[in-house]
Design brief:
By secondary structure, the protein is an alpha/beta fold. It has one domain: P-loop containing nucleotide triphosphate hydrolases (Rossmann fold). Helix content is about 35%, strand content about 15%. The protein has a six-stranded parallel β-sheet with strand order 3-2-4-5-1-6. Strand 2, helix 3 and strand 3 form a beta-alpha-beta unit. The radius of gyration is 18 Å and the shape is globular.
């Protein structure tokens, strides 16, 4: 396929430029490593375009401060100081539901997850960010804490040119339906398989 060419020519009455600037929903899923890594890479690309970036982590422990968070928050500070790139917000929606459920009841975690989604809904309605990273958001949907059909309907009806990236395993069918880009990460080999634990710079 020639560089920059698509395999089909849509008959939608739009110009090439109009089609090029359509907002997308990106879904990174599957059993393999790299779902969140790819999402944060996209956030870096959006930052360089001057976009407002909103990251919402729905599962990883609130005690963790992963490398991508440090890097993106530093870029947000750079924007505030110099105007380069775009603003960055990073929110952790709970205390690490998939890693440790020792603090609070499941009802507490479910309520926190739902309120996290409600905050994303409010921001989508207000067009607060140009790019949203909903990291590991498939899990509270799978656990029944957030309604997948509602999420898909909200994303399909979002105003403006807001891009949304969702990561996690086993996405709800409605998310697969609404996604414009769906990439399944397939594990072929991983050090975990031979008993090697995660290491700095690779897993966090």
């Amino acid at each position: 396929m020639p560089k920059g060419q698509t395999p089909v020519t849509p008959q939608d009455g739009r110009t090439t430029n109009q089609r090029r600037h359509q907002p997308v929903v990106v879904l990174n899923h599957g059993q393999g490593k790299g779902k969140s890594t790819a999402a944060f890479g996209l956030a870096l690309r959006g930052w360089s375009q001057g976009w407002s970036i909103g990251v919402f982590q729905f599962v990883k422990s609130a005690k963790w401060r992963i490398g991508e968070q440090q890097a993106l928050e530093a870029l947000g500070e750079l924007h505030a100081a110099t105007g380069q790139g775009g603003p960055v917000e990073w929110h952790k929606m709970g205390s690490g539901w998939s890693w440790s459920r020792t603090r609070g009841s499941e009802e507490d975690h479910a309520a926190d997850a739902l309120e996290g989604w409600r905050e994303v809904q409010r921001r989508l309605a207000a067009e607060t960010h140009r790019l949203y990273v909903l990291d590991e958001f498939t899990y509270p949907i799978t656990w029944g804490w957030v309604d997948g059909e509602e999420v898909a309907a909200t994303l399909a009806a979002r105003p403006g040119t807001q891009h949304v990236v969702i990561t996690g395993r086993d996405p709800h069918p409605a998310l697969l339906e609404v996604a414009d880009i769906s990439t399944e990460m397939t594990k072929v080999k991983h050090p975990f398989d031979r008993g090697q634990r995660g290491q700095r710079g690779i897993e966090w």
